């Protein structure tokens, strides 16, 4: 879901950068206040795993592909939506600057869609559902699916404002493709959470709901 | 599992995925590109055929609409290294994964809450 530079006018792209920077500052403040030094290697591993998984495009029906975004996973494992923003911002920086994947002027929009929306929907969706159904993996699956679906709808709105997509057709197209692609996000997030909980149950910020 | 072991296994898994990804990844457009191409008539919404000519025209049209013609030469465009084909792709993704580990470790190290 990496928006390229050509899809959004420069002025709007810069506005998204300003919003993204506000969330990046909040993420840095979260790190300073809540991310203990013992989490540093875990953050590095999560970022590397998410980068590698993003290079793996999984085919889905209708001639399209999807890959893990990973913000929901990072947010769930590290126990804060800001962790998703922190990790995705770093991944998007490497992808944009080194590999030309996702635009530079529009990187703020991509950070908002994948990092901010992914982190917040992923984390709060997970905690809310986990409280209701008491199954961490189903909760993670649904929350991660929803994080991709909502990101896609927001992306469609941004591209409608940009004039690139018509609003309704954009929402329907993005929504339908990502309703399917989100299943990849849900599945990988749930499996990764299970593996992490099995290997190191103590590493999760909210271990209560996860029975390994 | 020891913490150190957990981290090493995590990095090893990321590297294995990096090496495998270029061989198993799909070349089809992603969800956003598919939406873009189908809206601009280069692809049927549910079809897998991409009309390359119409796709290029669509990209030019997007630039015309937004006026954003920013471009820059990424050092390893499209996760590949010129002239190296598949091995170049493997190398590119591995380099990216190592860069991401280093950058994330550094950024987290600098910004983390001091424990004492």
Concise summary:
The complex is a heterodimer of chains A (212) and B (116). Chain A is an all-alpha fold. Chain A has helices at residues 10-34, 40-54, 71-78, 81-99, 107-133, 136-162, 167-199, and strands at residues 58-60, 64-66.
The global form of chain B is elongated
**Contiguous uncertain segments of 5+ residues of chain B:** none
Q: Indicate the multimeric state.
A: heterodimer
In total, the number of domains of chain B comes to 1
Mean pLDDT of chain B: 94
Sketch the major β-sheet of chain B: none
The end-to-end distance of chain A, rounded to whole angstroms, is 32 Å
Task: Explain the overall architecture.
The complex is a heterodimer of chains A (212) and B (116). Chain A has 212 residues and is an all-alpha fold. Chain A has a two-stranded antiparallel ribbon. The two termini of chain A are 32 Å apart. The mean pLDDT of chain A is 95. Chain B is mainly alpha-helical and 116 residues long. Chain B has one domain. Chain B contains 4 helices and no strands. In chain B, helix 1 packs antiparallel against helix 4. Chain B starts with a helix and ends in a 5-residue tail after the last helix. The model of chain B has no long low-confidence stretch (mean pLDDT 94). The chains are: A mainly alpha (212), B mainly alpha (116). At the A-B interface, helix 1, helix 2, strand 2, helix 4 and helix 6 of A face helix 1, helix 2, helix 3 and helix 4 of B.
């Amino acid at each position: 879901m990496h928006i390229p530079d050509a899809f959004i006018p420069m002025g709007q792209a810069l506005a998204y950068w300003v919003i993204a920077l506000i969330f990046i500052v909040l993420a840095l403040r979260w790190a300073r206040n809540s991310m203990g030094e013992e989490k540093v290697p875990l953050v590095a591993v999560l970022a590397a795993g998410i980068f590698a998984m993003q290079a793996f495009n999984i085919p889905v029906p209708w001639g399209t592909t999807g890959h893990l975004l990973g913000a929901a996973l990072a947010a769930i494992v590290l126990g804060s939506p800001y962790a998703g923003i922190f990790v995705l911002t770093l991944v998007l920086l490497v992808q944009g600057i080194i590999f030309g994947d996702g635009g530079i002027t529009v990187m703020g929009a991509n950070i908002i869609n994948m990092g901010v929306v992914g982190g917040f929907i992923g984390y709060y969706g997970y905690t809310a559902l986990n409280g209701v159904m008491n199954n961490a993996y189903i909760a993670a699956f649904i929350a991660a699916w929803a994080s991709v679906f909502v990101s896609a709808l927001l992306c469609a709105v941004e591209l409608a404002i940009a004039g690139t997509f018509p609003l309704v057709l954009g929402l329907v197209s993005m929504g339908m493709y990502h309703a399917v692609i989100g299943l990849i996000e849900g599945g990988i997030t749930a499996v990764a959470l299970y593996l992490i909980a099995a290997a190191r149950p103590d590493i999760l910020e909210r271990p209560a709901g996860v029975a390994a | 599992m020891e913490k150190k072991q957990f981290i090493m296994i995590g990095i090893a898994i990321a590297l294995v995925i990096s090496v495998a990804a270029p061989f198993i990844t799909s070349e089809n457009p992603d969800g956003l590109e598919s939406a873009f191409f189908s809206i601009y008539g280069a692809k049927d919404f549910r079809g897998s055929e991409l009309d390359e000519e119409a796709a290029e025209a669509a990209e030019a049209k997007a630039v015309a609409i937004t006026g954003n013609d920013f471009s820059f030469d990424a050092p390893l465009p499209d996760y590949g290294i010129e002239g190296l084909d598949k091995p170049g792709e493997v190398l590119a993704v591995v380099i990216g994964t190592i860069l991401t580990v280093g950058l994330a470790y550094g950024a987290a190290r600098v910004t983390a809450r001091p424990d004492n």
